[in-house]
Queue: 2 jobs
Job 1
Amino acid sequence: MRLGLAIMLHTAVLKRAGIAAFLAIVVTGCSDNNASFSISEKTRSLIPEAQAGIAESPGVVALLDQKFGTPQTLKAWMKLPVQWGGAAAKVEVFAADGGEAKVKFTAEEGQTFPEKAGFVNVVTGAGAGKTFSVSSWDAATGEAVLTGLDGGSLAAGDICSIDGGSTIQSGRVLYMRHCSHCHGTAGDGNGPTAQYLYPRPRDYRHGVFKFTSTNDMSKVSRDDLLRVLRYGIPGTYMPSFLLMKDDELTAIVEYVRFLSMRGEFERKLVNELASDFSEDAVESRLKDEQRSDIVGELAKFLAEDLPGVVDGIGAELEETWVAADTEDARIIPSVPRVPDSDESRRRGRELYLSKTLNCADCHGIDGAGNGPQTMIYEKNPVTSVPYNEPGLHDVWDNLNQPRNLHTGIFRGGRRPIDLFCRIHAGIKGSRMPSFKNTPHEDIWHIVNYVLSIPFESEPGATGVAAAPAAAPDAAAAPAAGE
Amino acid sequence: MKKFWALFFWFWPLVALYLCVIAPGRNWWFPSKPLSTLGHQIDGLFYLILIIVTVTFVGTEFALGYALWKGATKNPSSRAWFSHGSHKLEIVWTIVPAFVLVFISLTQLDVLADIRVLSRFPDSVKEAPVAEVMARQFEWRIRYPKPGTDLMTSPQPGDLYYVNEVHVPAAVPTMINLRTQDVQHAFFVPRLRVKQDAVPGLVIPVWFEIEEAGDYELLCAELCGWGHYKMKARIVAESPEGVSAYLTRLEREQNEDGVQEAETASVE
Ligand SMILES: [Cu+2]
């Protein structure tokens, strides 16, 4: 563009060329009309027939398209626990008058009318599948004036969806504007700016999120995602979106959940197929089988078993994502925080160094994030190929170094409950393990110790209670922290 | 045609004068009236300079038009007056602008000192920054001292943290410490007319007195990287009691242990 502008400043002939260049860039550069959800590498490792499908039976790519659509035409798989937006409603009164009609709707059970409404989709009845535009809408009474009937009609009792999908649509627009350059269009953590960042932006497709208030086996809750959006992740490139409006944030959260479920669906589906129908698997099977037989087996699988598999994955997604928002999933300490004191910190340090918890193995004796685990060479658990660099690796295959606890920056938040959750549930997807079997009181001692580490007079200055002779001295000396 | 150019150059100063007259009524100047005490002084300087340049512009354009008009209406056979190299003229048009510039620089010294020189800050704020505003690619991280204590340069136990929103008292002088964690940023609050660069390695005190309670937009005014546009935050000016209530709330939130929260939730 700068080139285009520079040319514009020159002679009259070049001026016109410059403007042309400028316009061309504007037209081609700024549209996302062709944005698509990228297909994961795992899917691409399947043989083409498994990706594309055989005859009438859809393959992975077609199924993804059927269930989730493309960024331009999202599809709502109603089974999934996503708040799509809008409301389902029943037609109570219908009075047509030329191309217009006055309609009164009643909201279906558990649904509330949206504040604004632009269109109505007919779900059941004679006009099913039709879309009408709404020229006036009263959310309080459910009265609407519909236009563009074109001979279509409604009858009392028909079910319609009013402004269906409005939340997910606005979530998509906001996500594409604010997040996709890091997190990628499909939420694969691979947007254009991602390669310059460490830690890498989250790849949502595992459905795994690090900083949650839920149990170690549970997914992330909506509140956790909202918190991350509001406050960002200090110490990383994940920025704060505090100034966004609440309804914008909730719409983005729904879209992030949608992308996560889409990614999980794809992974799980491919897992079902990969052992028999990946390029590698087929290559080794070809030693004693015919390719046509393998493809025949695949065709049978796609036609007969896959629908059941798809339903199963849908049910699993529904169950786990719903569960994450329930009280049962939430970590609630059984005892209040143990008041912070030198004694408690020393107890925390003792636990930190203990053989059973062994935080020092990763975080180092003094908490500098340089424990022995940072020096080992690991192998990729799936491919068994050793990583290039020493240290721990997370489920996204990125280097995942234990935190230096002296920085005073806590990515998941600095409230005592945040650190309690970090230790209780671990940091999901990362190598920070869960210590859920540790008594809650002990976790509080560790929290008190961890919170005091940035203020130690020197690294490792907190004594341990196990050395009784040292204890009185340490208590008499000015406290390391407060 | 010759006269056209004289009229042409007389036309523009008239346009400029017309714009000067109608602009205030149409709100074409600043985002709003200045809402801090320093803002009035800064706007005063702006208007002073605006008057000087308008007078200069109008004067020189009229003189130019006059010279052209004279040339256009002159008897073609009369001889031109050759002014190039006239010492008298050179001296006049060097000294007059020099005086104007010296005048401007002397008048603004006072305001500049009030903004920048710590010893001229109001006594009530000199020693008492209310918060540290740490710029970072691409957000503003705020650190308040634990209520009842002073802000230290390095973080202290009990400090309170927030991001992209800073609460300050209205109607009294207030000072914050401006820092950056990475590259150069700039703390810019358009409605207060406050603008100060944040420079790596420096702790820069910035003071202002916000006249009206309300929300003020804080922007980064130094192109600091690709995410520069994201560096938008909110300054909330409220009564001193409002600020301390806010800090109490923040302190309670920051000490949340998840147990009281659950209890109050079940009581409600
Ligand atoms: Cu900046």
Note: Residues 1-31, 467-482 of chain A have pLDDT under 50 and may be disordered.
Job 2
Amino acid sequence: MQTAPFDYYRPETIGEAVDLLTSVDGARPIAGGHSLLPAMKLRVASPAALVDIGRIPGLSEITRTGDSLTIGALATHSAVAASDLAKSDCPVLADTAAHIGDPQVRNRGTIGGSLSHADPAADYPTLMRAIGATIHVTGSGGGERSISADDFFVGLFMTGLAAGELVTAVEVPVMSAGQSGVYLKHRHPASSYAVVGVAAIVTVDGGSCAAAGIGIGGVTGKPERASTAEAALVGNAPSNETVEAAAAAVAGDLADPIGDHYASGEFRVHLASVLTKRALAEAFGEVSA
Amino acid sequence: MEVSIKVNGKSYEREVEPRTLLVDFIREDVGLTGTNVGCDTTQCGACTVHLDGAAVKSCTVLAVQADGASVNTIESLANGELHAMQQAFTEKHGLQCGFCTSGMIMTAVKLVESHPDIEEDDIRHGLEGNLCRCTGYENIVRAVAEGARRFDPHSPWEMDPAEHKITLREAERRARERSRT
Amino acid sequence: MTATERAFGSSVLRLEDPRLITGKGRFTDNLSRPGMAHMVVVRSPYAHAKIKSIDSTEAAAMPGVVAVYTGGEMEAAGFGGIPCAWVVPDSDTQTPAHPPIAIDTVRYVGDAVAIVLADSEAQARDAAYAVDVDYEPLGVVVNAKAATEDGAPLVHDDVPGNQCFHWTVSGGDVDAAFSEADVVVGETIVNQRLIPTAMEPRAALADWDSSMESVTLWVTSQNPHIARFLLSLDTGIPEHKIRVVAPDVGGGFGSKIPHYPEDSMVIFASQQLNRPIKWTETRRENYLATIHGRDHVEEVEMAAKRDGTILGLRAKTWANLGAYLSTASTGVPTILHGLMLSGAYNIPAIHEDVYGVFTNTTPVDAYRGAGRPEATFMVERLVDLVARELSMDPVDIRRKNLIEPFTEGHEVATGLIYDTGNYEPALDQALEMFGYEEARKQQAEARSKGRLVGIGVVTYTEICGLGPSEVAGAVGFGGGLWESAIVRFHPSGKVHLMVGVSPHGQGEATTFAQIVSDQLGVAVEDVEVIYGDTDQTPMGWGTYGSRTTPVASGAIMGAIEELKEKGTKIAAHLLEAAEADVEFNDGVFSVKGSREEGKTIQDIVLAANTAWSMPEGVDPGFEASAFFNPANFVYPFGTHIAQVEVDPETGEIDFQRYVAVDDCGPIINPMIVEGQIHGGIVQGAAQVLWEGAHYDEEGNLVTGSLMDYAIPKAEFLPKFELGKTETPTAVNPLGVKGVGETGTIGSTPTVYNAVMDALAPLGVGQVHMPLTPEKVWRAINQAQEGGN
Ligand SMILES: Cc1cc2nc3c(=O)[nH]c(=O)nc-3n(C[C@H](O)[C@H](O)[C@H](O)COP(=O)(O)OP(=O)(O)OC[C@H]3O[C@@H](n4cnc5c(N)ncnc54)[C@H](O)[C@@H]3O)c2cc1C
Ligand code: FES
Ligand code: FES
């Protein structure tokens, strides 16, 4: 099944790419193409031109600087899942990557593409909100800026990227002692995407929960931060009751849930609560073990 | 646009429309029809090939994205003799109509490459991107386990394991180098 | 395998595999012809609308475009409507016109409105988007029961009430059964619509030869001879001028039985343009324009005595046929469904009313099991409900009502005469394999801890091996159901076996070679089975209804017997012995007691082919053809047991175990038979757990892609444990029964009953399939609220 015709550019640098994106009418970047090409084949999207950023050097490294990991925008899901650095310093990142789509999809899809696409059913965005990631972008004239995950995801398939701006890297904190993260998803049986995904990052210090980040995807138009639920955790001992209370609070953080034939908004909210409970239990279990 | 893609060890220089999908390049420009198309939403995996050593769905890669790359298809596996995975598929009856089979085998080869003792659960999980409507997967799972057990990485175009252990960047570097010469 | 090892009964590796595992499969879309153009179909985005105008000016001017045609042009060229090949008698069946390309009205989303021909598929697709169709939307109805209500929009103006037919089956005194009953249970079952989803989409390639005024059509068909016959009716091309070839076909499951509009379109376009024309369906089109299956609403009741004895079954069924009649549409919910309502049990009184209804949806036809899964589900569900009502174990109630063993035929209330059956041994074996008693104990323990573990048991039988042609005629099928075969020995002793059936994954290229090998002592590899080409094979009615082996093997055996006789005559002549003294064993004709001096079949074949010295009255050559019209259907049976666990919080179902003991008579190739059962189980279980086509009120198919419609993946499934019993049939010479559909027929109620068993402690009564987590979760909630 063919896409509509388009022009194709393959820049060698970010600068060139950004120039093309701002100068060529209707141009869109393509990275792994695993969100864009399916949409183009169904002619849901028909960009006039594609700017293939897939070969720009230096954009697929995973490196550690200080207390954070920086993942290049072109790092594939399988590269992240297999990364020793990710597995040791931020296991929840590697684990989330390993649960995206299927092996072939993971071999093509990139973290930058996933974040930029901002599909509410995607996995990475949910984790990024929970973990407090920073997204590094480059725009026209080579202007670089950093956007917090909280500001990056604006709505359904909408991000804080300005026209022509490219994601170059994502920065996440490494897991410190007493910190643990878990990502759980209720997978759609057909698409493999998350019907609901929940990421929970908790820090336990001196027997009580010192910090918590809960990200919830698939329920509303964008990945949400469950701040009421987080508040229910902080300062409390990680007991069953605390976990239950946090899970119960999740609903309050999820206004206007979306629904479809497979799962209504109400059910999604319910799943979010159950998955939050389970993710928290598992995360607390890891740090107290 | 001119592309140069190595398919099963042989270079093909062709003029293609940018929208040409890698699978159509393989089936129509190269004329190898072993790679099938079973869907339009990247779900079925019938089109799975190895792109620079990684299993990918060739219906969701543009030929221009694969410019300079090396692609191996189902036709590359048998080297006079059947590949261990092909042998296992026939012995364990891992196919009925055979439409999903090329993609299934190409995925399986990569799945077990370095896991001769792969567990059943990991096989099932690893086949998530490949749909089969005929077999109920039971015998495919058995075939993949058997193929893993006696996996022999030798096949004509993957003779040198180092060849497909190189990074994408290294492959790209080589490709650029070649196109310069 | 050596020729002396018995080929019958061994797991010979498949002869069709070498090409398929090396990427050399000959699927239709792999073929191309010099000068070929491509066809793309413009399809209606409306479920019901008047076509006010079609403007193809822009499309026709686009690069590479050769032509754009509409339904009117096709009609003017003499192409008629798509025929329906099955009209159930005594039912006032309405057969509204089905133009291959809609002429003034579209009746479902996906109905064809125009075709675009271009040099490349991409060009044809670009132009198809540019064809401008002006529609005037009309009222839409998608639900079968709603379609029969007063004031419902009419799908066809000439079909009042949207009712295609009203068919009944009746046996015994049903009213008396219900008035005498101690318990009556009932439910409204929605046997939801399924999408067959063969992994290979449909494709068709037509090459019109103007010099011979003949056409060759390569097409993804399960029955090329039926395709040719029907094409001769609607294309106007005489049957002997049509060659239909079904090369390798990537699965069908019923969806490649029908004669489809696109088959005619490519022929029409090839004639018009004098070029070969290829069309390949996208998956999206496959979901819209290839038939769907099931889609019944059934109001069902069962009457029983306090001791569990079943007295009667009563049902009213609305079968959604979609917008038009497909090839076998009306036969599926009637003959293949209603007649099977006795299941494996003695049920003295049965009555069913079936209403076939038109709606603004994709046509519905045979999908794996076709009618029988719906019947079996009904019966097995009701039996479980009776058991629950009487607090009986589902095994005990089944044992109590199972038909006792029979070898000479057993007549059930619907009028069918089952061939042979011995149901309890299969039940016992399955219980043993499952460790049923232990499993029930573990279940009780799990339940006491609040876990929702469930076990489902089903004892089924089904009708297949279609079938006696006299019955085919009596039930309104527009053709016969016999088969034919030609066994042709070439001078060197190699064999061509030509059959009219058309396997597409079931492995008969191997099993039929095994039959020839077993009977005539040639190596399996020396036999090539030729099928799927109307010019190369004798007439046959195709591969569906688990009929290929039980029916075609009868024809093969007929030809083999003739060759054995001929061989004996020739051998007697060459050995200068009396015919009566010659015996044939393991490929050698010899005088009794002197095998060493005997003649191998290859010797005889060579002698017959050279014909230097033939016995008097014996013709040269070594070839025989035979026809086989079976005396009855065959009725395989078995017991299936499943175990599941439901997550009470999320409604997710963990499919944990599956034991299947099936009896399909003597087994030619155990490996292949097991493969058929595995695939069948998964398709049946998928109906319970994942699959369901869903339309919105406007008639849009919401589950219109593999992104939304969940066919199973490897990781959803447990390992299957299979057992078997072997009860031969007397219907065909080898005693074999069909096995292609048993898995599907058995597994849907088994898995469903298992889930309902898991939910029983909570008081959940019914959940409609597919049992998606949300539906299960809601049912649990509702039951708990009700309980409070
Ligand atoms: C069958 C299938 C199953 C999948 N299952 C899942 C799943 O379970 N979970 C999940 O999270 N995802 C899933 N995906 C999506 C997959 O992860 C995609 O790869 C990912 O969403 C997009 O990455 P990409 O590199 O392919 O982006 P592309 O498709 O190339 O691009 C996506 C969008 O982002 C833009 N873009 C790409 N890169 C950049 C950049 N660096 N800066 C700015 N804009 C950019 C593009 O213009 C486009 O709009 C699935 C996809 C498929 C086909
Ligand atoms: S064709 Fe289905 S995934 Fe590529
Ligand atoms: S063998 Fe037919 S789809 Fe897998």
Note: Residues 52 and 70 of chain B are 5 Å apart (CA to CA).
